[in-house]
Design a protein that fits this description.
The protein has 532 residues and is an alpha+beta fold. It has four domains: 3-109, Winged helix-like DNA-binding domain superfamily/Winged helix DNA-binding domain (Arc Repressor Mutant, subunit A, Orthogonal Bundle); 121-278, Tetratricopeptide repeat domain (Serine Threonine Protein Phosphatase 5, Tetratricopeptide repeat, Alpha Horseshoe), CATH 1.25.40; 361-408, no CATH class; 409-518. It has 25 helices and ten strands. A hairpin with a 2-residue loop joins strand 3 and strand 4. The two termini are 45 Å apart.
Length: 532
């Protein structure tokens, strides 16, 4: 049996019953050793209480209290704190799991240094990548979900061996961590993808997976904008290595989407779908782009297609819930999000969508309960704080709204600039509003199509008492895809123009647009089998 490397400093040799931490042997009692080994062998999956008791105490009958005490002793021996664990976490009501990355090593690999988890340590060329460049690549020529799905559903990919472990093995392991959608697990995925690249610098799926992990760090976990650029860089590298494989195009589509480059994103997703027609990932992600553009019928068609392609994947159901919510089909939205959470109860994005859905239907207390829980689980998830800020705006608690906007502004990520705009507008910071307007204008002129940026420009104009220009800008935001009607209610800046005749036309404009699309979706639903 091989040796296990656990995290960066722990090595377990089952053949010799040896545990070392930073090269120093740890003398563990037999029961603690058995407990550690079964957790490591099953990482990153949860091991139930019953399975742990059976493996550790074998035929003896013991209580859950015995297990808790043994976990505590093991943590103490490993200098692992329950409040901020590096190795072992308790999953309430289910069991325990090892959260450190676990790699099965042959002897020559034991002393290899693990790459540091910093974006700065990655050497990659920075390049400008526009639509023309993309089309050129497409002629000559996902997210860890890329690797997980394709490796299991498509032709087996070549792997590069180093001793008994391969680049493909590292990528598969990284995909398991990436798909948990949690900050620490995403960092672990990045480390493992880098390990795969160390083993084989020409293994395309590793670059595609790494690109997805950097994009997720930016989108969900408040990382700096440099992470988004890294996602683009690694996607391009994946395409250069394997232009006829889909992973690079899929990850590039995600990076472009988060950059607001929607047209280029859809081109990349389309190429990924052409190369892997049975893969639901690019189809579902295309639906999300159409959702943000306010093209709800197209979004519905794409997301329904992705659900049929992989009905066990929780992601399309959460996007479907988002789509139904925008169409004001609240019962359908609730069912779709419930389905997503039934498939993956700890799916953070689905929980966030559910909280925003509750905000939309004005069930504020229930929304707050969910957000309190998700922020506790992932305190650096920027989207959590964004919805929380909107909730406080809607309930009139401007102090808490400012606090949430301040937390977002201190992170990186997609919502940083809109959060700064809201904070400056609420604080009536005239100078900062001018600077932020210039930033917004620059991003929009450089091709960022995200409607939130246009809406933010409208807020600045409103704060500057330029009411006609603000209302005109809000109308542009709606036409660009802004579809959250609640965003035009209860904001303190909106109160000053609530009775303005031109402002009053905005909500009917939204409702008319959504009504037409809702009628078309209802017609389409009669043509398909119920997926919920």
């Amino acid at each position: 049996m091989g040796k296990f490397q656990v995290g960066e400093d722990l090595v377990i040799d089952p053949d010799h019953r040896l545990v070392q931490q930073n090269g120093v042997e740890i003398k563990l009692p037999e029961l603690s050793y058995r407990l550690l080994l079964i957790l490591v062998e099953n990482a990153p999956n949860i091991v139930s209480h019953d399975k742990l008791v059976e493996a550790v105490w074998q035929e003896r009958v013991v209580s859950d209290e015995n297990l808790k005490k043994r976990i505590s002793r093991l943590r103490h021996a490993l200098s692992d704190e329950a409040e901020s664990p590096s190795y072992i976490v308790a999953e309430r009501g289910m069991g325990y799991r090892c959260i450190a990355p676990v790699i099965l090593l042959a002897d020559p690999e034991i002393n290899e240094l693990v790459p540091q988890l910093t974006a700065e340590s990655v050497t990659s060329s920075r390049r400008i990548f526009n639509t023309t460049t993309l089309i050129s690549l497409l002629v000559i020529a996902v997210i860890g979900l890329v690797v997980t799905i394709i490796n299991h559903k498509s032709t087996p990919q070549p792997s590069a061996k180093s001793s008994d472990f391969t680049a493909k093995d590292y990528v598969n392991k990284a995909g398991n961590y990436y798909f948990r959608f949690k900050p620490n697990d995403n960092d672990t995925a990045i480390m493992l993808y880098k390990k795969a690249i160390d083993h084989d610098p020409n293994f395309g799926p590793a670059y595609g997976g790494l690109a997805n992990a950097y994009a997720q760090g930016y989108y969900q976990f408040g990382k700096e904008e440099s992470w988004l650029q890294l996602s683009i860089d690694f996607s391009i590298r994946a395409i250069e290595i394997e232009p006829e494989q889909p992973w690079g195009y899929k990850s590039l589509g995600l990076a472009f989407h988060l950059s607001g480059r929607y047209d280029e994103s859809l081109v990349a997703y389309s190429k990924a779908s052409d190369l892997a027609p049975e893969w639901a990932g690019p189809v579902a992600n295309s639906a999300l782009v159409y959702l943000e553009r306010g093209q709800l019928v197209l979004a519905y068609q794409y997301v329904m297609k992705s659900v049929k392609m992989d009905y066990k994947d929780p992601i399309p159901y959460s996007f479907l819930g988002f789509c139904y919510r925008e169409l004001r089909m609240t019962e359908h939205a609730n069912k779709a999000i419930d389905k997503s959470l039934a498939l993956k109860p700890d799916y953070l994005l689905a929980q966030n969508y559910f909280a925003e859905f509750l905000l939309f239907i004005e069930k504020f207390e229930k929304a707050q309960t969910i957000l309190t829980k998700t922020i506790e689980q992932a305190p650096k998830n920027q989207f959590n704080h964004w919805i929380n800020a909107q909730l406080h705006i809607q309930t009139g608690d401007l102090i808490l709204a400012k606090t949430s906007f301040e937390q977002i502004a201190q992170m990186g990520g997609r919502y940083r600039l809109p959060a700064k705009v809201n904070l400056a507008a609420l604080n009536k910071d005239t100078q900062q509003l001018v600077e932020l307007y210039q930033l917004l204008d620059s991003k929009i002129k450089n091709g960022n199509q995200w409607a939130e940026l246009i809406y933010s420009k409208g807020l600045i104009m409103l704060a500057q008492h330029n009411i006609p220009a603000a209302i005109s800008t809000f109308e542009q935001a709606i036409k660009a895809g802004m579809n959250h009607s609640y965003r035009f209610k209860n904001h303190p800046l909106m109160a000053n123009i609530a009775e303005n005749p031109e402002f009053k036309k905005l909500r009917p404009l939204l409702e008319s647009k959504n009504k037409e699309q809702r009628q078309e979706v209802i017609r389409l639903e009669h043509l398909v089998k119920d997926v919920l």
